[in-house]
Amino acid sequence: MASKIAxxxxxxxxxxxxxxxxxxxxxxxxxPSDSVLIKPNLVAWDDRFPIAPxxxxxxxxxxxxxxxxxxxxxxxxxxxxxxSVQFKKSVGTDTAYQGLGYRHLEKRYGVVLxxxxxxxxVEFDYHNGQVLHIAEEAVETDFFINFPVLxxxxxxxxxxxxxxxxxxxxxASKRHCHHPESGLEFxxxxxxxxxxxxxxxxxGIYALEKGAxxxxxxxxxxxxxxxxxxxxxxxxxxxxxxxxxxxxxxFHYYAERQGKSVxxxxxxxxxxxxxxxxxxxxxxxxxxxxxxxxxxxxxLGVTGLALPKYDETLCSGCSPIANMSNILxxxxxxxxxxxxxxxxxxxxMLARPGYDKTVLLGNCIIKANKGNPNIxxxxxxxxxxxxxxxxxxxxxxxxxxxxxxxxxxxxxxQSEKYNGKEGYDSGFYRAADSIESVLAIENPEx
Length: 446
Ligand code: SF4
Fold this sequence. Notes:
This protein has 17 helices and 15 strands. Strands 1, 2, 3, 4, 7, 8, 9, 10, 11 and 12 form a ten-stranded mixed beta sheet that branches. Helix 13 packs parallel to helix 15 and helix 13 crosses helix 16. Helix content is 31%, strand content 20%. The protein folds into two domains: 280 residues, LarA, N-terminal domain (Rossmann fold), CATH 3.40.50; 119 residues, no CATH class. The protein is α/β, with parallel strands linked by helices. Iron/sulfur cluster binds next to helix 14. Iron/sulfur cluster (SF4) binds next to helix 14.
């Protein structure tokens, strides 16, 4: 029998989500005695330049709605688990929980919050001795609910349910997925084999174009997609933002192993017609034709310097550093050609000839370019990832008159870009204080 995929318009809490789950028989196999693990997308937390939450994080509103639905179904053992990127030591999953109102959910509903970065791991051999370490709570639960956001991604085109599972990995395994030989989409597509989500719910209250932490563009979309079929939910989610199955490599890797179809025609769509909710969103950032920097370099006339486009080996640790170097490079441009400097990141870029200095950002790229005869003078910036101050210092020592304040100004502007704009309601990222919610917890029979 074809798996159902439900699509509903979000109009009210918790009824819209409740309806969506019912339409796809999402709780058909759920027992009140089950331990439930919910994996939202709380990708990273930045306390200095807060990430505008729209389309980046699972909304706290829908998370609360889901908890209410689970309580209504008689479940009492509910765990929320995430392993957010840690930009610095004390800022990670716990600060994301704090900032997005999850502590309130903990108090109000008795849910348990787990930081996968601190969890014990279970090891899985996913391909000829290559292993992934997955947080044990994600593997050992009875009923895993995957709760991603409707968003694009600069390396994998879409980041929906299958990609969201990457947050269940321990840090070394996250980095392993970005290894040039693993192949990012091939490796992370295996996580669902081991975690086996029983239900995927895609939060499409907002959708994110050119998705990234601070830099994407969010649109209000007001839809929820759910299915007990992990691939089915992702196929519908991808379609809603303009991507067919053949656009997404990880859909095919998963489907081939699991013997599943990548054609939506082989699933049963229920609820709203998907065609009424399709709005294509871009995933990619334009780069100059000679791969010397982001598209804006061409518009501004930046020459001399080269910042080749990031590739799939750039992992979340170095990603902010790569973005920072783009902004710093622009800050050094005063209308004249910049010094002949090439700046590399990730794990596999190789320095090209013709540059006087090569700045190597992070341990991986230093290693990849050891002995590269194209390098005249290397400026290695050690670290995994390197620190902002070391990067700034390295660019200055390469002869670039960069301004750290220009970078800070840009990040502040990204943090505040939706302020005062219609439709961008930060209330979605706080626990509700509605009397109904309080009643729901005080009266679990309801
Ligand atoms: S150096 Fe950078 S790219 Fe390499 S593993 Fe560390 S954070 Fe990732």
